[in-house]
Fold this sequence. Notes:
The complex is a heterodimer.
Chain A: H1 2-5, H2 7-20, H3 38-47, E1 52-53, H4 64-68, H5 72-79, H6 86-99, H7 112-120, H8 143-146, H9 165-169, H10 173-184, H11 206-217
Helix pairs in contact in A: 7-11, 10-11
Chain B: H1 2-5, H2 8-21, H3 27-38, H4 41-44, H5 47-52, H6 58-70, E1 101-103, E2 108-110, H7 112-122, H8 131-134, H9 142-152, H10 166-180, H11 190-194, E3 200-201, E4 204-205, H12 212-218, E5 223-225, E6 230-232, H13 234-244, E7 249-250, H14 255-266, E8 277-279
Parallel strand pairs in B: 5-8
Antiparallel strand pairs in B: 1-2, 3-4, 5-6
Amino acid sequence: xxxxxxxMASAALAALLLMVGPLHADNTxxxxxxxxxxxxxxxxxxxxxxxxxxxxxxxxxxxAKQRMVQDELQKxxxxxxxxxxxxxAGKILAxxxxxxxxxxGGIKLGDWRKGRELAWSGYGFRxxxxxxxxxxxEPGGNCYNCHQLATDRVGGTLAPSLTNxxxxxxxSEQTLRFVYDMIYNPHAYFPCTRMPRMGAKGLLSNEQIxxxxxxxxxxESPVNH
Amino acid sequence: MIRKLFxxxxxxxxxxxxxxxxxxxxxxxxxxxxIDKTSAPYLMQSEQNIMMMEDSPALWTxxxxxxxxxxxxGNNLVSLETCDxxxxxxxxxxxxxxxxxxxxxxxxxxxxxxxxxxxxxxLQGFTDKDKEIKKRHGSKSDHMKLQTYIASKSNxxxxxxxxxxxxxxxxxxxxxxxxxxxxxxHDFNCxxxxxxxxxxxxxxVLPDIHTPEEWTxxxxxxxxxxxHDNVRSSQxxxxxxxxxxxxxxxxxxxxxxxxxxxxxxxAARGQPAxxxxxxx
Lengths: 225, 280
C-alpha cells in the first residue's frame, strides 16, 4: 500500500493520466466512450478493447486482426451502405477490373460434378470458436447460400436465381469471361455488391473456378436441365 | 398397473410447476399474436417449431435456473436473490427487456450475461476460474439455466432498453456501426443477411432488422435451438454470426459484444419478447 503513495508512483500515474487525457479519459483513467464518434468507438471496441480474438491464426496466413482491418472497398461500401456515389462506383469498378487475373491458356470449363459439390459447400475460412481446417477439407464456394442453382437442392434468395444459367446464356467467349469475372471479383460489374470476391481474395483457386463455371455453363450440368 | 402409472406422476407435477414459472403469457401465444398481426415469413417459417414450443425443453431449463437462482452458492454461500439486474435488487420482472443498460456500481453498460457474471463474483464469491462462470453454453451450464430463468420473467413484455445515459447511447450507436461494417475475407456485415425482408440462406428464412415485428423473434434469446438440441443465449448467437461472417471471434462480455446487443435490442423496441423462443 505504501508504494502506491510514494512520490515516484504518483508522478508516474499523473503522467499516465496526462497521456491518456487527450483521448478523453475520465478521472479513473478509462476512455470516455461518450466523447468519441460512433465510428471511432466501434474501431476502439474492435481493436483496442479486447472485443475480438485478433491473435488467432487465419487460413490464408497471418492473424485474425487482418480480417478486421477494412480495405478501401469495404470502407466505401460500409460508409455508403452499399450505395457508392458515381465517382466512388467508377473507382471501385476500375480497381476491381484491374484485380482480375486470367488463367494462362484462357478461361476453360472444368468438371461440373466437382463444381456441383463446391457450389454446395459452405466450408472454409471460418475462425473464432471453431476453425475450418483446410488440410482436412477444401473450402467451398458458398454459392447455394444465396443463389438457387440446380433445383434438386434448396438455394438461398439473397441473390438472383442461376437455374438454367447456361441454357439461357450459352457459352460464348463473352459469357465465359463475364462469369469468370463475376466469380473472381463481382465489383467489376456491381460496385458494392454483397457477393464475395472469390478470386481476388484468394478464396477459390483458378481450378475451382473452372469447375464452378462448368456447373453453371456445361449443357450436361443439372443447372441446365 | 401401478408400475405403469408411476412415472406419470412426477411428470405431471413438474409440468404444473413449469406453467407457473412463466410470468406472462405462454411464449407461443406471444408469437401467435405477432403472426396474426403481421404474417411475416420469418415468424411463420416452422409450423412444427411453433407447435413444439408448448413442450419446449427450455421450460425445464427455466425450472433448473430458478432452483440455482434461489440456492445459496459460491464461496460466500448466498443466493442470487439480491442481484440487481437494473430494476432493483431481486426484481426480475421486466428486467431483461431493459438490458443492456448502464449500471452505476460498475460504471459500465452490461448485458444479462455480463451482469450475471458480476453478481456471481461480487455476491456469491465465484472467480473467473470456476466452471460456474467459465462455462457459458449448453442447457446443462449454470449460465444457460440462470439466464433462461431470469429472461423468462420478461416474456411478452416490450423491449425497452434505456438510452438515457450517454454511455447507453454511445454503445448502441457503436453497435450500429459494427452491424454495417463490412470486413473479413468475404466482405460480409450483419446487414448482408439481415437487411431485407423475406430472404433466405438456403432453406432458412432470415429475420430483417428493419421489421421490428419479426426482429423481436430474432433477438429473443434464450431460445431452444432444435438443430443444436440446446438452449442458446444472445452472446452465443452473436458469436455464431461473426463466425459465419468469417471475421475474428467475438469475445463474450466484451464491450464490442454488448454494443452489438445494444443496437439489436433497440431495433426491436416496443415489440414483445418471446422467451423462451424455439428456433431451428
